[in-house]
Design a protein that fits this description.
The protein has 287 residues and is of the alpha+beta class. It has three domains: 49-144, no CATH class; 146-214, no CATH class; 216-287. It is built from nine helices and twelve strands. It has helices at 3-11, 124-133, 146-169, 172-183, 192-205, 207-214, 217-230, 261-268, 272-286; strands at residues 44-45, 51-52, 55-59, 66-69, 74-78, 83-87, 110-113, 116-119, 141-143, 234-236, 242-245, 251-254. Helix 3 (146-169) packs antiparallel against helix 5 (192-205) and helix 7 (217-230) crosses helix 8.
């Protein structure tokens, strides 16, 4: 073998094999299904017009831990039928009227817990009994009506604003007359600032009564009579039945039986004789 051929043999080199890399598959992420949302029940009306919804009833006044009201021996006068109909709450009946019930009547209790009773929308029989027919409705308990409560709150706030505005603009004589109803003779010792402050507080605390007093023309006349008595111009007898002049004890008027003396005097001031006496007293008070 020639040297040339040996050289060729020795130069032949095998190419190393490259190891195959394993294929990595990219996982496909599935899109999660949306979580089903619970659909809140909508308020509907039954065939007789009754609104199907949850209702809450509250005990009026003090809230006991537990209080039961009658669920039987209840009667409701039916205007259309012209007679009283017996009522009873039975969970296995579709009506609270005994004359409409069918089959067994399993009497159920009506119990308020912590002063409240929550009745779900499914128990329309109990709701109708409590909301429409029960004799203790609005006496022992009442149904919570948020719309009506909001309307009442608005009315109260508007009345309060009206009363405060009236109190702010009231003249001193009328302010004294109104406050005399509240604090009595102590109003005579109050400064104008104290009178104004207490007047505003009174209007805010009891706006309805305040407005009634402001619009009552007899309030001023009663106050006028009280001032005349306090200043020794008029005199009221010990039995509170007679008004007379303090200077000479001459009788002016008799107080009718079962009437407040100063209310009677205020009414008398409107008569012809009373108007003359009023003018006379007014001159003395202003002198």
């Amino acid at each position: 073998m020639s040297k040339k051929q040996e050289t060729k043999k020795t130069e032949t080199v095998e190419t190393p094999k490259v190891a195959e890399q394993p294929k990595v598959e990219t996982p496909v992420m599935e899109k999660p299904l949306p979580t089903p949302t619970r659909k809140e029940p909508t308020n509907k009306r039954s065939n007789d017009g009754w609104e199907i919804k949850d209702r809450v009833y509250y005990i009026k006044g003090k809230k006991p831990l537990s209080q039961m009201i009658r669920s039987a021996n209840i009667y409701w006068f039916d205007e259309e039928k012209g007679y009283e109909r017996e009522l009873k709450y039975c969970e296995n009946q579709k009506t609270p009227f005994v004359d409409e019930m069918q089959g067994d009547q399993r009497l159920s209790h009506i119990i308020f817990r912590n002063g409240a009773l929550h009745v779900t929308r499914e128990k329309t029989t109990l709701q109708k009994l409590l909301s429409l027919y029960h004799p203790e409705r609005d006496v022992t308990y009442e149904e919570w009506k948020p719309v009506a409560k909001a309307a009442d709150d608005v009315d109260i706030l508007e009345m309060e604003i009206e009363a405060l505005n009236a109190a702010r603009d009231l003249d001193i004589n009328m302010a004294e007359a109104v406050m005399r109803v509240e604090v009595g003779s102590g109003v005579s010792n109050m400064s104008s600032k104290e009178l104004k402050r207490d007047l505003l507080l009174y209007a805010k605390r009891n706006p309805q009564l305040f407005l009634e007093l402001v619009n009552d023309e007899n309030v001023v006349l009663r106050n006028f009579g009280i001032k005349a008595t306090e200043m020794g111009i008029l005199k009221l007898s010990a039995d509170q039945r007679t008004f007379s002049w303090a200077s000479n004890d001459r009788k002016l008027m008799n107080v009718p039986f079962d009437e407040h003396p100063y209310s009677a005097l205020a009414a008398w001031f409107k008569t012809d004789e009373g108007m003359e006496i009023y003018s006379n007293i007014e001159k003395r008070l202003n002198s």
